Amino acid sequence: MRDLERCLIFCALLASVYAACPSRCECSEAAHTVKCVSKDLRSIPTGIPGYTRNLFITGNQIGRIGPESFIGLENVTTLSLSNNRISEVESQTFARLRNLRALDLSNNQLAIIHPEAFTVQNQSLRELNLSRALYNHSSVMDLATSLRWSSLGALQVLDLSHNSLILLPARIFSHLLNLRHLQLSNNSLVAIHNSTFQGLEKLEELDLSQNALKTVGEEGIQELDYIPRTTLLLGNNPFMCKCGIESFTLWVNRSQARIWDIDRLVCAFPVSMRNTSLLEAGKLTLGCHQRDAGGDLALQTSYVFLGLVLGFIGLIFLFVLYLNRKGIKKRIYDMRDACREVWEGYHYRFEIDSDPRLSQVSTAADV
Hints:
By secondary structure, the chain is α/β, with parallel strands linked by helices. The protein has two domains: 17-290, Leucine-rich repeat, LRR (right-handed beta-alpha superhelix); 324-366. The chain is built from eight helices and 15 strands. Helix 4 packs across helix 5 (278-285). The longest helix has 37 residues, at 287-323.
């Protein structure tokens, strides 16, 4: 009986290994590869051979993927799902792929990314490509949650380029403790803050080229100093070389060894300094502080002069009052007497109106 069970199990395994290739796909048992490219597929095809290690399902019309999409594919190490118009990735979608090392979801339209969407058994995932994959800012927030909950402690390469990112959520990468390469190029990042790179002590390369950085403030400089062993790419940003950029240019000068594209760090504005290297811009803009100090001194001098003028006018006013003190005193007394006479007249009229007898006498006297 046991021999029969073993035979059935062996036959089932053998059948799964040597399963027929799904329709509209190309299979190579020798290369352990299955390709389903541009076949207008609406879902992940079933019947993919168990020997598959490299699975390419690209250029199709797949809207969502979930845990049921990859049953029986424990041997897959490389999975490419690029350019499929995928909008939703459910939790535990790749959990069965216990040997998965590289996942490519580039060129999709990810609007909903569930927590634990990228969880893989044994934390085997090493590379995650999300270039041109995020639909909007809401999906960026979902991604931040998923990176936190998906147990990606072994991830080494993360590509988030070409996603129109403007700002990154706070501590988005703090749980990727083994990350080596982080691609953030070709976005619209305007600042570096929110402890963005905290925890990335093993990061070897950070690409921030072709973004919208006009300068890097004190907080951003501190963020980059948190990862002193990381080589940087900062070129092709529209740096604005005006007063206030001195601290960044000083940092650039002392960090030349770790900036790979130092020759591409040039001024974009103002026009008079366009294409000037930031290494030289610091020397040219150091006069800003001197000009500012001169401006502050001029402003302070103006305030002092204005105070003296107002004080002089006040003294003249007091002197005039002193010279006319008798006339002013007489006018005050005259106003007091006039007010007293008016008040007594009102008081007398009130008494007459309140006593009927006095009112009759007053009327008779008038007649």
